[in-house]
Amino acid sequence: MPFVLKQYSAIQGEKIQHFLINNTDLSGSQSQKLLSKNRVFDDQNNILKNGDTINCQTIQVAVFEGHSRGLKPIFETPDFAVFDKPSGVMVHPTRKTTEYCLLDEVRYFFGDEASLAHRIDAETSGLVLVAKNKQSSRQLKMMFEHRQYNKEYLALVKGQVLTDLTIEKPISKADSNIRMKMTCDSEAGKQSKTFIHPLKFNESNQTTMVKAIPVTGRQHQIRVHLDSVGHSIIGDPIYGVNESIANEYLCKTLSDEKRLKFTGANRLMLHAHKLSFSYKEVDYNITSKQEKTVFSKFFK
Predict the structure, then answer these.
(1) First to last CA, the chain
(2) What 3-state DSSP class applies to 62?
(3) Angle 256-263/243-250 helices, nearest 10 degrees?
(4) 291 close to 144: Cβ distance less than 8 angstroms
(5) Phi–psi pair at 4, nearest 5 degrees
(6) How many Cα atoms occupy the beta-carbon half-sphere of 148 within 13 Å?
(7) 121 is an active site residue
(8) Around Cβ 54, how many Cβ atoms within 10 Å?
(9) If pLDDT is split at 50, 70 and 90, which confidence band does 239 have?
(10) Rounded to an integer, what distance in angstroms lies between the CA atom of residue 122 and that of residue 180?
């Protein structure tokens, strides 16, 4: 498990933030971060906050320690690296019980200062950019905030896409019982644009492989935009299906057989295929190696 509980003998009467800085191997910034994220506990597992006075025998701190399952970066410089993430792997741990995520590999290879420059959904496979140190982290995250990069995805969608599409619809949180679901129905949403280019049509199962280029970076943007024009992504358990299927998926009760029947695949057929950007006056164009593996079942 990535989170490990470390125990320290407490000094009663001392403020918790002073104790962490003076009696552990944590820096001041690390201590504040752990306290703000509710990862410091007394010996009764009560959460300790900044400013609390210690009144217990031991202090427990939940720290993230990465481990490897064999996923290695496909490209690397002194400042950053790129991983080609498989579908099903989360990029960050969502709770203390998360057994494995991409951040495990990042910290295993590059240490505690390394971080993800951006995120993709757990079920989306493909390229993820990683900063190796704090300085490159600031630069790369700013690059993503200012859209100073190009990302290209491949997706397998329902139906035949005949021509290039520019989908320019605002995206907002859906008025739905499905948590995380987004919609294009509200004009109050954030302006969003996606370019779609058809690549290959499979007449036997009526699916099209498309190239998707998001101009903006909204949550679930490619998924919700494609669904809004009647071409939901194969394997999507939230868009293009009824709410009962989406609820079963989110509650982790949707069987593989039922998902395959209603969505067409047991994973989201969306793949982060290319990533292009300039860093320190050098242009980088990185391509995933997973395309044939991801889509081979549908296009032989």
Answers:
(1) 38
(2) strand
(3) 140
(4) no
(5) -120, 135
(6) 14
(7) yes
(8) 18
(9) very high
(10) 13
What's the rounded mean pLDDT across residues 12-34?
88
145-156 as b/e: b if 16+ CB within 10 A = eeeebebbbbbb
What pTM value is reported for the model?
0.84
Q: In the predicted model, what is the mean pLDDT of residues 90-110? A: 87
Calculate the alpha carbon distances from 31 to 28, 50, 59, 67, 272 in Å.
5, 9, 13, 22, 35
Q: Which two tokens stand for residue 181?
A: 């679901």
One of 52, 79, 84, 121 is an active-site residue; which one? 121
| Residue 163, Ramachandran bin (φ over 0: left; ψ between -120 and 50: alpha; else beta) | beta
Report how far Cα 292 is from the mean position of its chain's Cα atoms: 22
Give the whole-angstrom CA distance, residue 290 versus residue 156. Answer: 14
Helix 16-23 with 28-36: angle, nearest 10 deg: 140
Phi, psi of 13 (to 5 degrees): 90, -10
Token code pair at residue 175: 């008025």
Integer angstrom CA distances of residue 18 from 6, 13, 33, 179, 217:
17, 11, 14, 39, 40
